[in-house]
Amino acid sequence: MLVFQVLLDCGAVQADALTVDRLASLEKYIQTAVLPRDSILATEVEWLKSIKADLVVSDVVPVACRAAADAGIRAVCCTNFSWDFIYADYVMAAGYHNRSIIWQIAEDYSHCEFVIRLPGYCPMPAFRDVIDVPLVVRRLHKTREQVRKELGILDSQKVLIYNFGGQPAGWKLKKEYLPEGWICLVCGASEDHEVPSNFVKLPKDFYTPDAIAASDVMLGKIGYGTTSEALAYKVPLVFVRRDYFNEEPFLRNMIEHYQAGVEMIRRDLLIGHWAPYIQRAVALKPSYDGGVNGGEVAARLLQDTALGQYHASHGLSGARRLRDAIVLGYQLQRIIGKDIAIPAWYSLAQNELSSRTQLPNKEVVDNSSLTKENDYFAILHGDHQGLPDTLGFLKSLAEIQSSCSPQNNNKFQTREHLAAAAMFNWEEEIFLSRAPGRLDVMGGIADYSGSLVLQMPTREACHVAIQRNHPSKQKLWKHAQARQPKDGCTAVLQIVSFGSELGNRGPTFDMDLSDFVEDGQPITYEKAYNYFARDPAQKWAAYVAGTILVLMTELGIRFEDSISILVSSGVPEGKGVSSSAAVEVASMTAVAAAHGLNIDPRHLALLCQKVENHIVGAPCGVMDQMASTCGEADKLLAMVCQPAEVLGLVDIPPTVRFWGIDSGIRHSVGGSDYKSVRVGAFMGRKIIKSAASVELRSSLSNISSAQQINGFNPDEADEDSKDLLEMEASLDYLCNLSPHRYEASYATRLPESLSGQEFVEKYLDHDDSVTKIDKERNYAVRAPTRHPIYENFRVKAFKALLSAAPSNDQLSALGELMYQCHFSYSACGLGSNGTDRLVSLVQEMQHSKSSKSEGGTLYGAKITGGGSGGTVCVVGRNCLRSNEQLIEIQQRYKSATGFLPYVFEGSSPGAAKFGHLQIRLRS
User: Do the bridges between strand 114-117 and strand 130-132 make them parallel or antiparallel, or are there none, so unpaired?
Assistant: First the structure.
């Protein structure tokens, strides 16, 4: 038999043993299997025909399934995951223009006869049918006793096997990493990799399954091979989360279901804090008792299929496929548009998804159906104000507490619930805070240039529950407990984030609060940024834990007690409605309440901005945190961002209403587009200041010369012109320059764009403390500079119009200002296909014959926040017909893109207005 090797796909490119490089993976797949697709198919079809193949068996290579179909040959895949599911996450990171890759992979899989599905499987909706088999496990060659004897391991010794898929390079191993009396077998170590005396390098050709079966505990990452062997040989697995590989949660659930796994946080892996995890794992009793002969079962299926027998039902297995498609649909829901026809079952899944997975605050909550909060918590301070989401959060706390009860037999508690239940002392007081997201009505990215902004707090909000305890009384997770010094206790911060399974992040985070202190002083923000950035799965904790460091640094607060924090946010991420600000504000409000700190709302918002700018590393202005803190329900917060002067609250007229429509395109203020536009605006300010300075010097020089020659009296000079130039030469915020002065004196002096190198050579620096200039990059300058100058004028006009007499002209003018803002965003490079499409749909609706005959209902729309996707704000008449038109826009957008947009409607109080709750569990 002739065998030829050819690369048909590339899998996932790993930056290191624990991190997949999503963009590199997608790019390599494009180069490997997308661009040369036609030639690959032609070559493979010709080869299959030449060898007269009867069956193509693939380890889930998409193009192999299509090649088999083109050659008229049956194809079967054998796998626990499919690449359409894995790459869906990468497409979200790379951008919607790559979405056709997913549909092409799914279309290739649809030509497969059936898939032999292994345990711990991911959703696989593209395959026509499925046959499940037991675990496929490599057979052992030697007994446990033979291996241990060969390696010189005593019967009394405990053995850890260190197995990261042959990628341990760069991780220094130390003797003290292991518990006393343990030895560690290291797989895949290079010849020059030195190990301590209690570590043993396995030879390159050593058969790994034999070593695993001879060990007491395995330390590694989760993959199918590791998982199957841990279960089959009943060897507990201490695993470290691998970032950006969607296969992992399904395998992890299987491991934990059979009590065979313990998760180690990456930080503890790298610093060698292994012992508590190993000791916890060795106490487990793995309970897997299923079959391990999946290889034999699969071999018989393949043999029968090759001989012409049919095992597949040729049905679509509708219920299973729909369920899988719903999960995959979640991965793809932010990918806007389509290049080729979306299979029917994806569309069905989207309908099902929209009806089943509404966001928490969007659900209709019947207060009468909720158990009254007084039935389980006594409220010692504050008022829940009847907010449905707060009542729901109180109920969820009660459910978490009840899971601690011995009478609770629910074995399927999420890890977040279990971790939260284990960290609170339920007999002690707990403090609750609430902070909403915000809908950017006007102002947007002009905030960092000092503009007036108008912001409305959303109905969706983040809740935080916090408890402080003396370190000696704190309930600690086992690995955190093991870090405690033998001669006392140290304060520990523990955080649980609900909803972690919906994103690629770890559900828990913990640290010793002493990590925030160095030589008796708080660590620098730069060190804190690096501390959180080193583990992508736990970087989210910077938004929460960062509030503690900022309070230490800016207010001199010292935290001596341990702190437990639960975060539960209903503000959707990546949609441009300030989910991050809501988390920061809710967290700092809760920390302040628990520690008796009285922080002015404005000051608290400014402190939260420092968290985002310096610890998270996102260069946002302060309007998000101010709106989340100081906003009030059904009002617009008017604020001049210089840096944060609240002018007051603007009533929304009863005839006017604002909505937000999610474009489905993920937005991030940490993204390069937002940063480059901000850099361009600050470059423009520096150029204007420089030009004004030159003109001022020239003017003063001319006055001096005229005085000497003609006896000119300087008092007769144009003092107003001089004062104007002085102001512009020291321009602190771009928005303090009026549009007419910009057009008269500076518009033509600004370049359309400028390289970082050219700017630095001429102006040295752009004077922005939260961004840096990349000398190799070319920056747009004129449009980012022009935008905030005109936006400030638009927002002032918008605010004045809101107090005008109700009329169609009022609504039309408000809408026109929003349209102008939207197109100015696009000129800066912050537009997107999805937001442009939504704005166009509003325009079409506004100018349709039916709207004109009815007097119109929708009047304008604009992109919000940092742009480049996210949410569009819509203004319209407050009437039923407006809601009907929004529903029509939703459906038209879905028909064009395959994505049903979420609509933000309603408002709620900001964190300062809500205050905080202080609660205690009733006996």
Answer: parallel
Pairing of strands 377-381, 521-522: unpaired
Phi/psi region, residue 435 (left: phi>0; alpha: psi -120 to 50; beta: rest), is: beta
Q: Tens of pLDDT along 764-785?
A: 999 998 889 999 999 999 999 9
How far is it, in rounded angstroms, from Cα 864 to Cα 825?
Answer: 9
Residue pair 500/478 in contact (Cβ under 8 Å)? The answer is: no
Catalytic hit among 108, 447, 624, 673: 624
- The torsion of the CA quartet 600, 606, 608, 611, rounded to 10 degrees, works out to -140
What pLDDT was estimated at residue 818? 97
Q: In this structure, is the dihedral angle defined by the CA atoms of residues 289, 290, 294 and 297, taken in order, positive or negative?
A: positive
> In the predicted model, what is the mean pLDDT of residues 206-232?
92
Q: How far apart are CA 477 and CA 422, in angstroms?
A: 7
- For residues 530 and 510, what is the distance between their CA atoms, to the nearest angstrom? 16
* 512-552 pLDDT per residue, tens: 999 999 999 999 999 999 998 877 777 889 999 999 999 99
Q: Answer yes or no: is pLDDT of 655 > 70.
A: yes
Structure tokens at 365: 């909550």
- Tell me the β-bridge partners of 917: 432
**457 vs 360: CA distance, rounded Å:** 16
754: confidence class by pLDDT, cuts 50, 70, 90: very high
Taking the C-alpha atoms of residue 616 and residue 243, their distance in angstroms, rounded to an integer, is 18
Cβ atoms 163, 187 nearer than 8 A: yes
Is 84 noted as a catalytic residue in this protein? no
Report whether pLDDT(107) > 80: yes
Indicate the SS3 state at residue 665.
Answer: coil
Exposure class string for 407-416: b at 16+ Cβ within 10 A, else e: eeeeeeeebb
Average pLDDT of the chain is: 84
Under the phi-then-psi rule, with left for phi > 0, alpha for psi from -120 to 50, and beta for the rest, what region is 634? left
360 upstream amide cis, omega within 30 of 0: no
Q: Which residues contact 342 (CB under 8 A, 6 or more apart)?
A: 103, 898
Report d(CA 605, CA 585) in Å as an integer. Answer: 7
Q: What angle do CA 338, 339, 343 make, to 5 degrees?
A: 65
Residue 660 · residue 861 · CB < 8 Å: no
Query: What DSSP assignment string belongs to 441-510?
Result: EE-GGGGGGT-EEEEEEEEEEEEEEEEEE-TTT----HHHHHTS-TTS---EEEEEETTGGGTTS-SEEE
Question: Pick the residue with more confidence: 352 or 837?
Answer: 837
